[in-house]
Give the backbone structure.
Amino acid sequence: MNEFEFIKNIKKKYRLDLIGDDCAILPKDPNSDLLISSDLLVEDIDFRLDWTSPEMLGHKALAVSLSDIAAMGGTPEWALLSIGIPESLWSSKFLDRFYDGWHELAKHHDVKLAGGDISRTPNKLVIDSTVGGSVETGSAIVRSGARVGDSIYVTGPLGGAAAALRLLNQGERIGAGSKDVLLKKQVAPEARVAIGKQLRESGAVTAMIDLSDGVSSDLMHLCRASNVGAVIVANELPFEADVMEVAGSVDAMLDIVLNGGEDFELLFTAPQEKISTLNLTDVFRIGEVTGTVGVIELERDGKRELLPPGGYRHF
Amino acid sequence: MNEFEFIKNIKKKYRLDLIGDDCAILPKDPNSDLLISSDLLVEDIDFRLDWTSPEMLGHKALAVSLSDIAAMGGTPEWALLSIGIPESLWSSKFLDRFYDGWHELAKHHDVKLAGGDISRTPNKLVIDSTVGGSVETGSAIVRSGARVGDSIYVTGPLGGAAAALRLLNQGERIGAGSKDVLLKKQVAPEARVAIGKQLRESGAVTAMIDLSDGVSSDLMHLCRASNVGAVIVANELPFEADVMEVAGSVDAMLDIVLNGGEDFELLFTAPQEKISTLNLTDVFRIGEVTGTVGVIELERDGKRELLPPGGYRHF
């Protein structure tokens, strides 16, 4: 059983109807809903200290949760930060530098640190990042609204974070090198808050999710929630030249683009005619919603094959 | 530098005015404020798996955060649960049983699980427990309202959790034994939500905090926030017979009662005449607020001595 199946089980067992989107949506006031989301980052599982700097890790800890607010089209407002830290890191300047990086991004998004906790750990660093935000009552974009015939879009090129992960595993490190732009997609990703909000306000979007696990996996979450299927057109998938360079072949590139996680771009569905009138730059149409419930197909050179969800699993 | 000094530093550096109470207080709607708090629990630092059952650990993970809402006089409403879990525990029934215990207490307090995260860890279990609640606008009891001459109260007998911790360290385990009532104070504490709310509604209370670190330490947080001092009367400290039995001497008992943490009783200040008219059972007057800013004294056999904050520190 993987973590998605486990969550599905407890959701059913305890009737947890607030769970199932990027954020929980709770009533806030007569005009707005409260959005909240948590992300746990564990050393040597979700990140490695020798891949990053304390500042970039602080940035990433906030960015991954901001991305969940972005996926609902919301505005982030406050955050909680719980940090479990081993003695050795505590006595260094690590945490000061971590907060500097965290705060730099928080300032940019006007997010206030409202609380959290600090505990010692036996040896590994763990970070739980919670972000709260708001959205006009009833207007949050959920995963369950995709309709057959909608087009499927992403807000930017894909595979950068996974390609960077491969380079990091090969020993490449961020510094003054030519690979820094690519490596930053893994160690210091950006959350697509502004475009998320713009998409919600456009009224065109029917469903949205952030790309944290991988296109094939996240699109499957969206399709299951919407009771639809999807076809992705391989030739339409956006990626940058350096991803192709790392991949080395078209097949490897497709694997990275479809199954690599942590791009933190938004994937959304909408009627094509509505999106074309919005004049959005950096929004790419990658496929279409179909009626074959729970099935995602990849169209390549005119042929369609089944695309199983292949993103990262913790278990 | 310990964790309290670190938090004080970043609070000052980044002007984090939402930090400093048991919960952050955020505006919610025209009638109420949002209360939120997080607590991180780390295996082998904050708990040991052989001390407890999965159900009791689930109970405790929620109780410690409910206690923060209680300390503000608020009503808990929703929760987030982030769990980092090693492979070995994942493949057992541990997490199902953990959620059972969590959910049992959540049901009692009408708290809904709204989200969270699950990640793998290399070897230790970590839990970050966040609870959100509400309170009438501007009515949350903070730490900073204590006034010279107020009496100091606690909502129940003290030292139970610390005495239990000593027994656990000596090899005692929860089961069908005669020590189970005491041991449960450490492994499955209760949050004092109802009395916290009652105290706030009484209008009598000037400041409140929950006893998570220890009386001497938590009272110091309250005194510093209120710019006052305090005197505690040793003979007035409430404790149960089994704490005295574990301690073995009056001095050891006083140390447990004053410096032992995790009782999760509430400590509050109020004018004595207001409290006496409320006919509260299980509320004990233990001392008085003084004008000697930042100084806590212990009065014992007519003599006063300095009481340094002696509760648990992670660093």
